[in-house]
Amino acid sequence: METFNESLAKKYDSKSRKLGLFLGGACATTAVSILCICFPFVSPAFRKICLPFVPATKQQVDNVFRGLRSRKGKLVDLGSGDGRIVVEAAKRGFQATGVELNIFLVLYSKITARLKGVNSLTSFCRENLWNLNLAKFDNVVIFGVSEMMPLLEQKFQKELCTQKETIVVACRFPLLNKKPIEIVGSGIDTVWVYSFKSGSN
Length: 201
Known about the structure:
The chain contains five helices and seven strands. The chain has a seven-stranded mixed sheet with strand order 3-2-1-4-5-7-6. Helix content is 41%, strand content 18%. The protein is of the alpha/beta class. It folds into two domains: 1-46; 58-196, 3-Layer(aba) Sandwich (Rossmann fold), CATH 3.40.50.150. It has helices at 4-42, 58-67, 84-91, 103-115, 149-160; strands spanning 74-78, 95-100, 122-126, 139-143, 166-171, 182-184, 191-196.
């Protein structure tokens, strides 16, 4: 016959098992959630060319649009991050597109554009910038890294050298073989402005 102590021990073991299963499930769920949230921010480090998200400073944004003064038309920000360049471009009358691989930053950018009242002039897409044909844009903004600038320059030469002039604003790092038509700012806030069209050097 089962004693009182044995019965109590069984109940305690049963409750302990249930608590253990609950805590184990909660820990696993938390770990998976953290992984899902962090992966889009960490994954760029595993690509051949890493383009990390580093928010533009206010001065960098100002310098970009000093380089684009008197310009209008379609603008694309390659690696648009939190969308601040695209939103500012829309405020200034551009039809602006942000291209970004991080889905959370794309969603954040869409929400920001709506809150700022410029969602009708903006669009954001989750896409690899190397797969995007730039020919339809009048203005291109890129916050690049040194490793990608030679490949970007080749892409610009291939896709932007048409009859119309396309202005490229490179931030943080210049193109290596193309002479800028203007340099705005200094230090980390420097931007280089380039003109691409058929027959240009």
